[in-house]
From TrEMBL:
Record family assignment: Belongs to the membrane-bound acyltransferase family. HHAT subfamily.
CC terms in the record's Gene Ontology section: endoplasmic reticulum; membrane
Subcellular locations according to the entry: Membrane
Membrane topology of the entry: Multi-pass membrane protein
Top-level lineage group: Eukaryota
Keyword Oxidoreductase: no
GO molecular function term, any single one: palmitoyltransferase activity
Signal peptide: none
Entry keywords, A to Z: Membrane, Transmembrane, Transmembrane helix
This protein's name: (salmon louse) hypothetical protein
Pfam families: MBOAT (PF03062)
PANTHER family reported for this sequence: ACYLTRANSFERASE (PTHR13285), PROTEIN-CYSTEINE N-PALMITOYLTRANSFERASE RASP (PTHR13285:SF18)
Record organism: Lepeophtheirus salmonis
Length: 224
């Protein structure tokens, strides 16, 4: 599709979304193989904290989690020298560290236009997510939420808020997985979809987030 992006103009909305989904899965499998093949050698050499293979990206809905659990080696390499422990609760420092991190990622992956767009979209999404987390920790916000919504309602509200970010992630990764022109085509196609198709897409993304949140809840329950 990267070589002949014009085919994306002729596909149905569901095939279009399927191509994007499978592009992500194939890309993830490449990393699973890379980490899976090299990890035994790292452990044999005494590297006890050698990164594991990435989590399935189909169950990751937030940008911060994607960076933590996908290319773990790159995340660890960037995290330690840039994100200082004492400043991790500072919203301004989080933005500055994200800006520095994605500037490095841009140079690391190659200073191409498509990588620049992908890096900027990542920076925007991570910054929005950090702002949302900062707001959610405020006492007044928690009091308002507890006074107006039940625990299930709060979870639904959280998933609704995360849905646009997941769609944004979906679009940014098209640039990285397939290319510049396909990324432009995907944005154009999604914006020009019928309301019915857009609503179904949003509902599917929302349902995926609900499933992922439930998996996270069960994992936390097992740990306790």
């Amino acid at each position: 599709m990267g070589q002949k992006p014009e085919y994306l103009l002729k596909t149905s909305p569901w095939l279009l979304c399927g191509i994007a989904y499978m592009s992500g899965q194939f890309f993830m499998l490449k990393y699973v193989v890379f980490y899976g093949m090299t990890r035994p050698f790292g452990l044999e050499d005494g590297i006890d904290d050698y990164p594991e293979h990435p989590k399935c990206i189909a169950r990751i809905y937030s940008y911060s989690a994607m960076w933590r659990h996908f290319d773990r080696g790159l995340y660890w390499f960037i995290r330690e020298p840039i994100i200082r422990e004492e400043y991790r609760n500072s919203l301004l420092w989080k933005f500055i560290s994200s800006l520095i991190s994605f500037s490095f990622v841009f140079i690391y992956h190659g200073t191409y236009k498509v990588i620049f767009i992908w890096s900027i979209m990542n920076l925007i999404a991570v910054s929005i997510e950090s702002l949302g987390k900062w707001i959610s920790k405020s006492v007044k916000y928690r009091q308002l939420l507890d006074a107006t919504l039940s625990p299930r309602g709060q979870r639904r509200f959280y998933c609704i808020c995360m849905t646009p970010l997941l769609l944004f992630s979906f679009l940014s990764n098209i640039y990285f997985f397939i290319g510049l022109k396909p990324g432009h085509i995907y944005i154009s196609r999604i914006l020009s979809m019928s309301i019915k198709h857009q609503m179904v897409l949003v509902f599917v993304l929302y349902s995926g987030i609900q499933s992922s949140v439930e998996l996270e809840r069960k994992e936390m329950f097992k740990l306790t």
